[in-house]
Structure formats: C-alpha cells, structure tokens
Amino acid sequence: MKQFFQKNHVYLQVNFLNLMKKRIYLILLSLTVIFFSCQEEKSKFEEQLFTIAEMKTAIRQCITAASDSTLNALCVVDTLTHKHGYYYYSDSTYRIALPKQMKDTLKKHGFEEDINSLIVDMNRAAEQCGNSIKRAFLTPLDTMLTFSNPYALIHNTNSAAITAYVKENKQMNFFTVLSSSILLEQFKNLNVHAKWNRLQEAYRDITGEQHTIDIVNYAALQMMNGFFKEMGLAEKAIRENSSLRGNKNSMLYRVFATLDE
To answer: Mean pLDDT for the chain?
Structure first.
C-alpha cells in the first residue's frame, strides 16, 4: 500500500510538472505574440504618422548629414593645424598606407624618408578630394538610391544601417569615381606615380621581385573603406544625438525622433 501511494505521488508530481511546463510555454507564447503585435502596431502607427516619402526624405537627409560630417573629418586642407584628415584623424585610423612587406623592406635599406614622403602625399591627395566627392558621388546619390523599406532602414538594429545600404549598393560607383578621376587627378598633381615607380624599382633591385600594384586603385580602396567607416560612425551619432539632426522641422529630426522613445 505504501508503494502504491509513493507511485501515485510521483505520478502526480510528474503530471503537475508537465502541466506547469505547458502553462509556462503558453504564457511565453502569448507574450511573444503580444510583443510582435505591439511592434507591428508601432510600425503601422509610424507609417501612418509619416508617409513613405517622408521617411525616404529623412534617410536622404541622414546620408547628407553623415557624409558631410565625414568630409569635414577626412577631406580637409589644413590638416597640419587641425590634425584632421586621412593622415591624422582618429589616431591615424584612416591613414592610407603602402603594402607592409614592401614598406618594411625598403625602410631597412635606407628608404624610410622616401616611404614617409610618399605616404604623406597619398593622404594629402585624398584630403583634397572633398568637393569633387560631393559633386561627383554624394550629390547624385539623391536620385541613384531607392529605399524599398524605409521603416526597416530607420529602425534597424544596426546603428549604421543606412551607411551599410549605401556601401552595398554604390561602393563600386564610388571606387570608380575615385580611381578613374578624382583621386587620380590629385595623384598627378602631387607626382605620386613617379615617387611610387622609383620605390618599386628599388624594391625590385633589393628583392628581385616586381611589384605590379596599381597605386591609385590601392589607395582608392583604402580611401573608400575609411570614408564609409567614418560615415557609419557619423550615422550612429545622428541616431543617438538629436542635436546632430539639424533643423527641428526637418524630416531627419522629426522621423528620427521616434528612435528616442
């Protein structure tokens, strides 16, 4: 009889635990449904509060604000005084450099001054491109880009989602503009090719290896990646700081205010 009651007691405990698990599962399921319903309702509410066109305008204004901030940080002329630009800004994070193996080898053989001079010139060339970048790449973005789901871009968990969208869709355009005209022109002005060719010859004499790197393409890729990296940080700051959104009547300010809630 004692064993009978013990078995029944265990059976009741198991049933009770199973029942509790089912109830907990149903509660969690209900909360999940409620959460996503609320998110969906919020999305619908904001889409009613702002039209698709208004949200697209806010995104375009965000691109303009973030890219202008990036130009002011990386493409500045007076870098020696303000310690900005590709060469100095943000602890030299964006400094355009030469291939490491080649640079290290040449420095060991007495070419450190030539290397440093060329690196300075490449970065100075990049810093002179601001107005041309705005005219040839950034301004046309206004008509080049379409946004199929502006709400998702604005409320993305990625704090640089808009910049990532621009990079994903238009980085090849940017690279082409830099390497074929804007940066190329500045390289010619600063005689970068001649300096690079002399260093390539010196490297070949030392190692017996011939470098065939296109220095404009090599620098343009670094320049572009640095630009988008800084632009992403600028976008993050705009999302987090309302004072960086400009006029309070602008769509950027009004639409992005929903991120503050």
So the answer is: 87
